[in-house]
Amino acid sequence: MVKHINCRRQGWAITAVIILFGVILIISCIDKKSKKELFVKRSVCNNIWREKYLVSSGGAHSAELYSDYITDSVNFRVYIGSHDEYGGFDYNCNGDSLFVRKVMNNDDGSASIIDSSIFRLSVLRKEHKFE
């Protein structure tokens, strides 16, 4: 009788491990550069747009995942990165330069800069890079 109960527990443990492995496999297969569902498009500066795509709807147990691109809709579209609903990207133009900062929202309402990049718009237009 005791051996039969232990076998049941082992069966549940194996089932739990298989389910956990399946969930991890599904989550790891998310394409963070997905452009399937445009969430919002807004102007960053003169004829430069930020396109924000919903990559994964988190549901009840996790945050939503978004991917950001910058584009002029004709000459280039560059992948900036992905973020969840607790962070994002801040865009500022100054002449031919586009400054991009990745920010994370803190619990107190402030934002912390995690990373930053600078893009030369003239170079992006010449390269005709579409991601």
Order of helices and strands: HEEEEEEEH
Total count of strands: 7
Oligomerization status of the protein chains: single chain
Average of pLDDT? 81
Question: Strand fraction band?
Answer: over 45%
Strand order of the largest sheet: 1-2-3-4
Instruction: Kindly give the count of domains.
Output: 2
Number of helices: 2
Extract low-pLDDT stretches: none
* Global structural class: alpha+beta
Alpha-carbon distance between the two ends: 61 Å
Characterize the biggest β-sheet.
Answer: 4 strands, antiparallel
Residues in helices, as a percent range? 25-40%
What shape does the CA trace take? Answer: elongated
Radius of gyration: 21 Å
Write the layout of secondary structure elements.
Blueprint: H1 2-28, E1 38-45, E2 48-56, E3 65-71, E4 77-84, E5 87-94, E6 97-105, E7 111-120, H2 121-127
Antiparallel strand pairs: 1-2, 2-3, 3-4, 5-6, 6-7
Report what the structure shows:
This protein is an alpha+beta fold and 131 residues long. It folds into two domains: 1-30; 38-127. It is built from two helices and seven strands, in the order αβββββββα. The strands form two sheets. It has a four-stranded antiparallel beta sheet, with no helix packed on it. It is elongated.
